[in-house]
Fold:
Amino acid sequence: MEKTIDESKQGESLVLEQKKENSRKLFIESYGCSMNFSDSEIVASILSNQGYNTTQKLEDADLVLVNTCSIRDKAEQTIRKRLEKYNAVKRINPRMKVGVLGCMAERLKSKFLEEEKIVDLVVGPDAYKDLPNLLAEVEDGREAINVILSKDETYGDISPVRLNSNGVTAFVSITRGCDNMCTFCVVPFTRGRERSREPQSIIEEINDLWNRGFKEITLLGQNVDSYLWYGGGLKKDFEKASDLEKATAVNFAQLLDLCAKTQPGMRIRFSTSNPQDLTLDVVETMAKHKNICNHIHLPVQSGSNRILKAMNRLHTREEYFDLIDNIRRILPECAISQDLITGFPTETEQDHQDTLSLMEHVKYNFGYMFYYSERPGTLAERKLEDDIPLEVKKKRLDDIVQLQRKHSEIRTREYLNREVEVLIEKESKKSELQWSGRTSQNMVAVFPKGNFKIGDFVTVKVTDCTSATLIGEGLHLSNM
Ligand code: SAH
Ligand code: F3S
Structure:
């Protein structure tokens, strides 16, 4: 199953779980990465304390919030189009207020208020707790903005309101920001420096989800393997911590172990892993616990050493292969997925061939592929000319998408005639007689409903497949 991300399809309106009488109506939608979807649940929680309940109807909203993505130019264009739509609705409902959250808010700051007359409120990813104050300003007729990035905000004390939830799977954020400074990436500028959330608050959130019937969580961060709790503060300030803080620090492998032990009936996933930070301790922890899913999302971005260096990815192609070999040795059943970029400045045909040969070597289960989009303020934008013609970027993207499709099919077929464990998430989109769920390897599986129900772990015999989906029969409940 290869996937390319189309930001225009990622917007999703979200509904609060409980409704109160006489409340104001919030319409909130999210674009971009899982972290944005997770952040919107934090925002919904903060605003539910202010009497806001969500609506799925834009026309009914008193307040519209859009959680934005800046990762590629196309993502930003999608948001601009959405603002035009809000504008049309505001003509009918002039009381409606519009706020921009997330990475575009952080990147454009007050420029947003100048460029887009529709916008009343601009709030960066670390300033959501200030929303009640900012809304009060807006109600007094002023524009409001807070884009201050924080050293220690992790929203660890906020209990997210689960939006559009299937009641089975949930995101739990564990780190915020990123210190890696990949030269193409805007995230370090929009989400600030890296900091980790207190383990106890993570465990409490997981326990609460378990008690409410959830069966799978995904630990989220830009770079989860770099997780380090030493009492709070930025990752880069760890050296300044006291001896006691250093001695009692919790790293990602330890956190993962703690999560898996705390709720052994719950599946644990995590995303994203950066190859330079993924340690064998993490892979061994995965092997130790049956409930940690056999899947690692391990973006590589390019197969060329020269391009990896220009991207400031701190590993070589050879080191990446070593890591893959180690993962396969310790966890033979582990699925591996990628992110790749084509057409980074100076990329030659040979560099592109290196990417294709790296893919051949790994044969990823699936991946997210993009062509390079120059982002203002990044090191690549400042130091390198965006010199690969768009047709070449797109042609190379097409090459890698085709190759990934072939590999996904090979990987999917490996499961034919085998038994897999599937957690049922929802009804299949294609048939109301079938359930849809995922295997530990993150592959989608569909099978007849039988007497099974949403949230069940079921042993499924795979009898057929498409390039991306396993088709089978549910045999019996499995003993997760
Ligand atoms: N933290 C993750 C990635 C976050 S961004 C990591 O460790 O890799 C998600 C993906 O978007 C990246 O992996 C990259 O493939 C892609 N991406 C980021 N910036 C991009 C840009 N300027 N142009 C095209 N793709 C980009
Ligand atoms: Fe971006 Fe690299 Fe961090 S892709 S999010 S700077 S790991």
Summary: Residues 178, 180-182, 185, 187-188, 222-223, 274 surround FE3-S4 cluster (ligand 2) (CB under 6 Å). DSSP finds 15 helices and 21 strands in the chain. The first strand starts at residue 24 and ends at 30.
